[in-house]
């Protein structure tokens, strides 16, 4: 018996009846020989971490605030790691498949473009201008990344369950009770990641909003602080414990009604005070739109002569993929190189020391020349 087979046997014996077994995966688009050591979901997790260039770039992509100068604001990479940690904690307690939950969590934001949600909205608008039948959504782009764009067009060939979890992780403003019980995704691990995603982002986004001066701590609704806790760790702990206590041996993910209400209150508070202002009226959003439109137009013109007739997806699709893969700083650099005049000529030389000596002599040899 191989190590993988022993792990698969342990899953059959110890995981919940609602868990997704590695040996029962719906498989990959291209069949592969099984690994003697790792299960199929372990392999997916490892491919995202070790082989995905999109995953590496998440460290330079903004979560909410556009291209912050300070180091402690959340990035897509940090967010993905937080979601994976929460998802694994919940999966272990509920006897679900930890590796499947972790793989979905690590891959769920691979399709995000630069500049957070403002960048996603701007890229969607300009993409539609060149292809009215198209649209850009980060969850769909995430699936495209792992199926088409990675590995020079071969994709990562992930399992069906992980790809489905990436596609259906979005939830908008839905109440937390709805996102843990509705379908899709079909796996309970996928639902778990949707809830873990909400737990992670409402907490670190609140911290970032206070740090950025968007909200003051005293503005946070009393229900949130009294029920969930007054620190980041207290709030996460409260949510996680409530999910575990209320979701054991159930085919859905839920939490105590009082705690769920407080979580929804925090979510709505952030939408009204942070998410909607940042993605609609902020001056930075106009700059993001200008960058996205300028780059899209430039690349359409630049690559039009290189476009191969009949190439799948067309030029606009290729340009959208290229811009979506950029980090915040790369997009800014690319835009600057194209649209901001560069310096030219040789810089003037330093002041001639002989002239300075002559000036001092004229002033009576004083060393205090202006």
Note down, in words, how this protein is organized:
- The protein is mostly helical and 370 residues long.
- The chain is built from 17 helices and no strands.
- It has a single domain, classed as Hypothetical protein af1432, CATH 1.10.3210.10.
- 40% of the residues are buried.
- 61% of the residues lie in helices and 0% in strands.
- The C terminus is likely disordered.
- The radius of gyration is 26 Å and the shape is globular.
CATH domain fold name: Hypothetical protein af1432
In the CATH scheme, the class would be: Mainly Alpha
Q: N- to C-terminal separation? A: 86 Å
Total strand segments: 0
CATH homology superfamily:
Hypothetical protein af1432
Shape: globular
Count, helices? 17
- Cα gyration radius (Å): 26 Å
Order of helices and strands: HHHHHHHHHHHHHHHHH
TL;DR?
The chain has helices at residues 3-14, 40-51, 53-57, 76-94, 98-107, 116-130, 138-149, 160-167, 176-179, 188-212, 222-228, 232-247, 257-280, 283-304, 314-324, 328-339, 353-362.
Write the layout of secondary structure elements.
Layout: H1 3-14, H2 40-51, H3 53-57, H4 76-94, H5 98-107, H6 116-130, H7 138-149, H8 160-167, H9 176-179, H10 188-212, H11 222-228, H12 232-247, H13 257-280, H14 283-304, H15 314-324, H16 328-339, H17 353-362
Summary keywords:
370 residues, mainly alpha
